[in-house]
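Suppose a colleague, Dr. K., hands you the sequence of a protein chain of 73 amino acids and asks what its three-dimensional shape might be. Before reaching for any lab equipment, you can write down a predicted structure in token form. Begin with the sequence itself:
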Amino acid sequence: MNFKEIFIKEEYIRLDSALKLASLVSTGGHAKIVIQNGEVKVNGEICLQRGKKLKIGDTAQFNNKGLIIKYAS
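The predicted structure, expressed as tokens, is then:
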């Protein structure tokens, strides 16, 4: 699976924001629904927290697509 790289300068990014930034979902409302339905995995495990803090090196997967959090230097 290819992982889209998401670059952040902060300590973390919320899961719903990361999904939107990676274009894995179209809106924040869409992110909320797929997370609550148990369709999103964070670091290989289903995550139901839309405010989950993703840090450098974390991965998220939805609909056979993925993202990885990297540090923007």
